């Protein structure tokens, strides 16, 4: 676990270089960093609150394709339905659409490229990035959240 936290911290420190900040509305859920640290695992805190990322192909939900929904690991807000999940072989779980109104977008110009970061609109937590190279037959979007930032809730049978 210490190695994972070191990697997340390194990735987070590199991610802050050259970042453009875009003002977004204040999320409805407001907590102190001490409260978030108490409620989240160390890995979740590094990803959700400090904008870290997990190593590709290591996340719990990369190859999960059961029926259900994905919610924010910090506040429980529904983000994705399993029918929007697809196999992209990019190393992170991939979805072609988020639940309308569940996320906000921020321009991220780190690592010498321009990407779109997406955060949860309810608690402001960092989820991952969205790209426009998703399935052509749907939205053409590829939302790639970190597995640490989401929780899968299986469909009841």
Strand and helix layout:
Layout: H1 2-15, H2 33-39, H3 42-49, E1 68-72, E2 78-81, E3 85-86, E4 94-95, E5 103-108, E6 115-120, E7 126-131, E8 142-145, E9 150-154
Antiparallel strand pairs: 1-2, 1-9, 3-4, 5-6, 6-7, 7-8
CATH topology (fold) name: Metal Binding Protein, Guanine Nucleotide Exchange Factor, Chain A
- What's the shape? globular
Kindly report the name of the CATH homologous superfamily.
Peptide methionine sulfoxide reductase
CATH class: Mainly Beta
The run of helices and strands is HHHEEEEEEEEE
Strand arrangement in the largest pleated sheet: 5-6-7-8
Total count of domains = 1
Number of β-strand runs: 9
Give the low-pLDDT segments: 5-23
In DSSP terms, counting alpha (H) and pi (I) runs of 4 or more, how many helices? Answer: 3
Largest sheet: 4 strands, antiparallel
Helical amount: 10-25%
First-last Cα distance: 34 Å
> Which structural class do you get from the secondary structure elements?
alpha+beta
CATH architecture: Beta Complex
Estimate the mean pLDDT confidence: 87
Radius of gyration: 15 Å
Percentage beta strand: 25-35%
């Amino acid at each position: 676990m210490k190695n994972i936290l070191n990697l997340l911290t390194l990735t987070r420190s590199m991610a802050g270089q050259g970042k453009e900040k875009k003002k977004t509305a204040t999320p409805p859920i407001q907590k102190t960093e001490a409260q978030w640290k108490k409620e989240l695992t160390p890995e979740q805190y590094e990803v959700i609150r400090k904008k870290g990322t997990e190593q590709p192909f290591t996340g719990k939900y990369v190859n999960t394709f059961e029926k259900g929904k994905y919610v924010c690991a910090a506040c429980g807000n529904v983000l994705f339905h399993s029918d929007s999940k697809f196999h992209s072989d990019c190393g992170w779980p991939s979805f072609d659409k988020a639940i309308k109104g569940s996320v906000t977008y921020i321009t991220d110009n780190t690592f010498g490229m321009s990407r779109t970061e997406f955060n949860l609109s309810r608690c402001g937590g960092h989820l991952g990035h969205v790209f426009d190279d998703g399935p052509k037959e749907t939205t053409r979007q590829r939302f790639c959240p970190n597995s640490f930032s989401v929780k899968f809730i299986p469909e009841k049978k």
